[in-house]
Amino acid sequence: MCSSDLPFGTHVAVVEVDIETGKVFLRRVVTVDDAGTIINPLLAEGQRHGGIAQGAAQALLEEVVYDADGNPLTASFADYPIVSATELPSFELALMETPTSYNPLGVKGIGEAGSIGATPAVQSAIVDAVAHLGVRHVEMPATAMRIWRAIRAAQSERSEQSEQSDQSEQS
To answer: Which residue among the candidates 16, 112, 139, 160 is catalytic per the annotation?
Structure first.
């Protein structure tokens, strides 16, 4: 098997985080995906756009929530957060076409490419955006509240470490 027989890709996201509120602003998503020979470019691009939006939504806000008895609290779209076009930037898509030898058309899959790469790209961009504050991890989905709490926890930890360091120096 040749390495070009398998689909491949990479995704990069750029975010801004309001450190006072934890709100994330997704500013840029750049992707490169390979699906072998592209038979219908418009359909392939649509699959990628939809997948990237879904992957970003998974990183940013999608979550099924249950109460203490196991009943779903997000039982309808009225309760379940859904990303809209207003929260998403225009996606920058680059395409690779390396045909596979496994079929006469040289085609590979494209349906999941967007969602597979977008989720970790957006999540990593969020953590990177607040890493200078001491944040090393934010649970998914990275809601404003979770990010705000992670920032406050990191600030508290830094404050405690600073106090301990000051006490050590005074001893």
So the answer is: 112
